[in-house]
# Entry
Amino acid sequence: MPDRPAAPELIEAVFEFLSGELLPTLDDHRLKFRTLVAMNALGIARRELEAGEEGMGEDELRELARRIRAGDVDEGLPARLKEHVAEKLRVSNPAYLEKYE
Amino acid sequence: MNGPAPWAGELEARLGRRVEAMHLLPGGASKEAWAIETDEGGLLVRRALGGVIHEATLSLEHEFEVLQAAEEAGVRVPHPVAYLGELAGREAFAMEFVEGETIGRRIVRDPPAGLETQLADELAKIHAIPPERLPFLRSSDIVTRFEHELDSVGDPHPALEYGLWWLREHRPEPLPDVVAHGDFRLGNVVVSGRGLVCILDWEFAHLSDPREDVAWPLVRAWRFGVDERRLGGVGEVGPYLERYAELTGRSIPEEELYWWEVLGNVKWGVGCLTQCRRHLTGLDRSVEYAVLGRMAAEMEYELLDLIAHA
# Structure
């Protein structure tokens, strides 16, 4: 087991550095925007580490994609896909899902 | 990045103008854009970066011709100044620099009155450009096109596959092809306090069913967070369609745009994935492109939601 800080804590430390120390010093719009994007990327990475492995694995996804392409679509599919995509969004952009509630 | 690019002298020689200042603008996806002050007014130089978002991207030479054809047809565009050929090894052209706002998030905060109908005015003029003026523009089966683009990404995306399946199962009767802008939405429209100034970014122009362009600004991602205003976060769809029908004679019921809105979500979802590959393949390393790979799920969820309410 590695010493602390753990990976999510390291990510958080970099996030805090970018938001608290770097961002306020930036005047250039492009750099500001890219720093915000970088902070967003760190948030995604942190949530992914905290969530751990969930949902369908790559092989299962590949098989499902292949079946749909071949026209093999059943009634339960939309609900299954919605859960799969919601899982991805809980990592990439949890706030986005709130719009659908 | 500020200060002169290594090709500033070449540009001066080509145009016979003196470059006084230049800076790189944010947000160029497949091409860089430079704002350049010269002794004869402001220019914007578009220069190739190497990669493309969609496979059907025009060369800068063709994009420049489309811009000229649009200007001839009375579309509000920045005046095309010169096609420059290669500028330090990369294709480029110069057009007039236009002042105004292009950032979607800022425009939707307080959109100028009448923007809905002004968008319809410009789109009607674009769709009236004679296709024979631009013989290099191509038409393609749009569902097949995005299938191929998704295949080029490599990783499995069953929700996008489901969107493609649904689109194949519910194909509408096609309308005759027109010259389409290909990326007609906020972000590619210059807006001032008085309203629409001009239409930018013609690199995705092609021939298509006019409803592809008409529905594109309705896609949720292009409402920039103001979801209740279905037309690009700036207005209602009704007046936009009415004005478009008045000018083109094409009366498109709002419900007919539904299929195209699902298509638009597939298109931008796949676009996010292909742009992300620019980063992953090392073609164009950038944190912005990287994060787009994780944004595709937003379009996936939206298309599942749209289809569920079909």
